[in-house]
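pinging the channel bc i need a second pair of eyes. not urgent but kinda urgent?? the chain im working w is below, pasted from the shared doc
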Amino acid sequence: MNFTEKIAEGVKAAVAKLYDHPVDLESIMITNTRKEFTGDYTVVVFPFTKPAKKKPAEIGQELGEVLKADLDIVAEFNVVKGFLNLSIDNKYWLEFSRKLFKTEQLGQAPANGKKVMVEFSSPNTNKPLHLGHIRNILLGWSCSQILDRAGYEVIKTQIVNDRGIAICKSMLAWEKFGAGETPDSSGIKGDFLAGKYYVLFEQKFKAEYQAWQQTDAAKAVFAARKKSEQSEPEFWKDYKNTYFNDYSELGKEAKAMLLKWEDNDPAVRQLWSTMNGWVYDGFAATYKALGVDFDKLYYESDTYLEGKRIIADGLAKEVFYKKEDGSVWIDLESAKMDHKLVLRSDGTSVYMTQDIGTAQLRSDDFGMDKMVYVVGDEQDYHFKVLFETMKRLGAPYAKGLHHLSYGMVDLPTGKMKSREGTVVDADELIRDVVEVARVNMVERNEVTGKADEDMEEIIRRIGMAALKYFIIKVNPKKRMVFNPNEAVDIQGQTGPYIQYAFVRAKGVYEKAVQDQINLSLADNYSTLKPVEKELIFQISQYPGLVLQAAETYDPSLIANYCYNLARSFNKLWHEVSILNAEQPETIAYRVKLSKLMSETLKDGMQLLGIEMPERM
């Protein structure tokens, strides 16, 4: 039983004793005491005002007196309005810390018998991975690690969007303008080559559209608009999709290619297979650089067929309905949504088609209790529709579907636009942050005196920590701006700052071993300093925080915890002597505390996919 559980039991008994009122343990609110107040844990007393028929401050005083008398762990208490702040006796913190010293893996929860699948990355095969994908990948990977640590059996997966009109645009542009170019002949990474032709298609289409706007047909379209509509530039901007579908020659060719693909045209399928192969090789290199992998891959080219089958069954059961043009829809007005297209009139699928099929195939393969989709918040409505659709189809796993919605990533210069080729590619960003880390180390004169190979690995780990931590530390729901120069700052709330604290603490333990310090003397230490207690308290929060991060799908909780833990250790480093303390038992205790901190920090950062360097 931990401190909060003991306090909760004590509060339950005290309320019954003082006010003759039964209280459920689950209803007792206990939080960490805020830094501006004295105490370790805070009991919220407002819920007891009704049975006690007293003011919150009076209740807090009475509860505090009973808890101090009846619970030996409580040393002192104070009351601030409706909050009872409790201080734990130092001897129990010492006893607790000695138990922690013997714990092999502090944050590991026992297996809970539940399976969860986490889908992340899920790129299109018409362009390379970019900065937005990096946030997606890092969130998905870290959530997977956290859920695993919380006791779940985790399956990491992605759905590769390998078919559709966007992929056909890249294929058509290569066919028309590529002149047989390949990754080998050009020296261009495969996913970048496909992306090159996606951008080229958009450039050719834009030129075609601008030329069409000068034709009589276009002038007639503009003249027929309602007078209340927007200006000519705004009108043409909004009309672009209609032009693509109704007038564009390139649009006709791209849509014809998509139909041929669905009809298994040999030439189209061969080109599709070849270009996708280039892209997969490129993706694999980027995933390796980011240190992520997957347990199972799904491809839209397979799952959309299952989606079509389910939709056909749903039509027979009247879950869906068909319009006169042959398109298939679902009416979600009763769920406060609208009517949603699930199959086009020409029989081709939409994203909803493949998502329906993918969900069912995954359930057939793994029988998960939960399925987490890591997808940007611009798709919030899509997933509300999907989850409601699966519910109406009677899918037994529908209640376990969750959309981990996250905000977009901007640069200091503004938004990225993949169609215009202004995105920041993942590979380029990885190289940039590592190079910034290198420059910073040179400026601090930290490069000399170490083997080149070792130094390259140190620089890589620092650069990747800067990239990953800067992104993960932000709550997923928030939009963010990524600044490489801020990310590598060793003084701010950054990955390198945390790495430096780890290396410093690890060095303390290594020096103690080298000097043959008797660490068993730590059991004799009895005078706990406030800065030591603060560090123990921080470490004690780790297992509960892992469970909280798993429950909320929020890796930023772990990221911010690691920063606060590193900061607490640095405070210990500056306020007391560790290896040069006056008493041998003090040295032994602080060395053990430093080692425990470094192990906890390393474990927490590992959950975020961040490697610690051996030295800095």
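so The longest strand covers residues 153-160. and Confidence is low (pLDDT under 50) at residues 415-421. — does that match what u expected or am i reading it wrong
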